[in-house]
Structure formats: C-alpha cells, structure tokens
Amino acid sequence: MSKFPKEFLWGGAIAANQYEGAHKAGGKGLGPIDYLPNKENGRIYAMYHPDEAVKKDYGYYPSHEAVDGYHYYKEDIKMFGEMGFKCLRLSISWPRIYPTGEEDKPNEEGLKFYDDLFDECHKYGIEPVVTLNHFDTPMALYEKYNGWESRKLIKLFENYAKAVFERYKEKVKYWLTFNEINILLVLPYMGGSMSINDAENPLQLQYQAAHHQLVASALATKIAHEVNPNNMVGCMLAAGETYPNTCNPQDIWAAKELDREGFFFIDIQVRGKYPSYSKRIFKEHNINLDIRDEDYEALKHTVDYVGFSYYSTKVATGDKELEKKLESEKTDGNIYASLQNPYLERTQWGWIVDPFGLRITMNTIYDRYQLPLFVVENGLGAKDTIVDNQIHDDYRVEYLSSHIEAVADTIEDGVEVMGYTPWGCIDLISAGTGQMSKRYGFIYVDLDDEGSGTRKRLKKDSFNWYKKVIASNGEDLD
C-alpha cells in the first residue's frame, strides 16, 4: 500500500512572472521582476537598489519573454497531463488583471487568458492551485505608494482578490494568498514592491508592510470563503529548519530566532493574532506599527492549510565572533544565507541538500499548527546537457526521489499532507539570478542566459520517471 493518500495532489509548480513572458500583451501592466536584469548585469544589486534599477536600461530583461508560457501553455499543459499531474500550482499576474492596480474594472483580456488556461488544465483533469501574489504587485503601486508600505494596497488587493474569486469560482478550488510571504524581510522589493533604502528604520517599514499584507491576506481569505464555501485558502512560507551550530544554548536560541522570522507570518495567518514573542521583537527594534481596530478583526479570518517551499535547511550560531569569522564561508540557500553544514552536500549553486531536513521541517510546522500541509515548491536547480537530443538528469531524479521519500516518512509520522508540486516542472527564468542555466524542470526549454533560443520543449529523463511516480502514487521511486 502506498504511504500517500489516494487523493494526494501530485503536480508541479510555476509562476506567472517566470513563465508567461508577454510582459505587455493583452493590456498587462509591469511587475517588479520586469525591471530586473540577469545575473551578469547585476540582478542581485538591482533587487536591493530598485530606485537605481528602474532608471536604467539594461537592454535584456529575462522576464519580458521568459519561456513564453503565454503562447505555449496549451502545449505545456498537455505534457503535464501526459505526466499524470493531478494539480498545477501557478500564479495569476496581478498587473495582468489590474495593470496599475487602481483601475475601476479588471482587464477582460487578462481574465480571459486565465479562463482559457484553467479550462486547459481541467481538460486533462488537472486542478489549478492558484497563488494571488507571487512577487507580482503592479509596479505602478511601487512608483505611487512605495508598494506595501501603504495601507491603500489592502483595499486594492481586496478588489483584485474579489474579481478573480468571483470569475473563477467554478474553476479554482485551491488558493494561496502571498508566495513566500516571509521573503518581505529579506528582499523587500520582490516581496513587497518597495524600497527601504531611505527609511530611518528599515525594519519598521518592513514590518508595517508585512502587517498590510497580513490584513490583505486575511480579508482575501474571508472573501474566498464567502464567494465559495468550498474554497481552500492557504498561506505560503519559505521554509527550512534552522539547525543550531552546536548544542551551546546561544546557538539553539539563534536558530529559534531565525525560524521565528518566518513563523511570525504563519502564526498570524493560522492563529488570527500576533504572536506573543513579537512584542519583544518590536520593542528591541523600536518598531511601532499602525494597527487599527478593524485590522484585529480582519486577522481572525484564518487559512485552511499551510503551503510552503522547501529547498534546504540552515545553520545558525549565537557566537558573534564565530559568525564574523565564518562569514566568508556562508552559503546561499533560497535567498537565506547560512553557515555551512559539514554533514551535507551542496548543489552547483551552493544550496544545502537535506532531504531529511524536509521531514524535520514538516513535522515542526505540523506540530505548531495542526493544519494540512502542502509542499508547493521543492526542487534542484542544475545545469542540463543535451546529448543526442536527450537529457539524462539522474541527479534531479535522485534529489526528488529522496525528498519524496521524506514526504512519505512524514505522512507515516502522522502529518496530514495534501500534495507535492516540485518547483519549475518546466524550465523557468530563475527569480533569484534571472538565469535559464539554473534549470529545475522535467521539460527542457531551449533558451540560454542571454535570451537566445527557440523555446522548443524537450522531455528530460526525469519526465518519464515522474510520470511513473505519479502513476504508482509514490510507490515506485526508482
């Protein structure tokens, strides 16, 4: 018997700003990633200095055409159907629906595009799992209000959420509000369409923006349940357990504090109120939030499940001298920097590979919230080589197989798990680096880091492997 429940949602994950391209087609407005160059032209710097970046002309912008999912989605979804997907996690581009975020009526061409996309999914028995905001707040709101710094965005997000919930109430059941909502504390431009560079207290600004997003998320959840009581609405955490560097209590506390940076958001979205530990954080960092009475009421509208991304674990130390000494040895893991873990290997991009850490992370989240979990991102970014029109990506199979085994063990631990959607089921533009060479998919897209290529699709060996995994409901991982 399979460890996975019969109704388990096997699938894959993509995002509008990394997949669709067609950045101005059908009346679409621009989003934050539309202003970012690739890694070679300074993408990382641009993320942290958006005020400079938006004034430059980089020539090539990876997101503008991306892998052209806007025109290829029928071909791609057919291939997802061939693999046997039960679901497809994707996002709606907010600026495709409301180009500036402030229009009186939604853009019909944008709505029609997703109508057709969802219809195509259902044609193959694929349930859409839809994220409302995957780093895609209209840039017009950045220019006018500095994005989520402004309370005005709460109402604008409500309008957007209501429009899509009503439009797709017969087509979409599973929703996520904000992608990796805790990224706002690390990359405020991507997470909040905002700059903090001129702020007297940047952390004050980030937590105020976080508050606005949390209220907006709760109100969207309320609307979703009113429009269709069968809607399942989830939150979404960039997850990954933090290990203490040693058993020194200072290291253990440092690990707990780092984990709380993410759990802060989910505590509110699941429990409907600010966690007790936030009082000390705000006091120590001189943070005074504008929270109104109606906000407390709004936050009571809590989510139905917890979605999360998982790529790696982290290592933390409370020894400031040691941390300073090891600063040069830190490795990046899904945006978050970490001390190296001597017990684990790393990917080509320096991310810690820790399948057992997925089981640990999932148990921690479930113990904390007792809500169903959904693994909505997990995957290996790697360089693929075409040999005789074939791609032998056994390294990807090995990575995913070990992580699926960890999910199976987690289910046996008693954790309720809804589904598993590995990231970039088709090759996408990397959000962090803007590269195509950092590939995750079961399907290769002919495109290089400079934007050259035919965008022709090609199945990798992992395509047939994942097809077998789904057909066996997770039993056959060889």
TrEMBL record:
Q: Which keywords accompany this UniProt record?
A: Glycosidase, Hydrolase
Q: Which family does it belong to?
A: Belongs to the glycosyl hydrolase 1 family.
From the Swiss-Prot or TrEMBL record, give the protein name: 6-phospho-beta-glucosidase
State if Hydrolase is listed as a keyword: yes
Its EC number is: 3.2.1.86
Active site residues of this protein:
E377 (nucleophile)
Q: Which InterPro entries match?
A: GH, GH_1_N_CS, Glyco_hydro_1, Glyco_hydro_1_AS
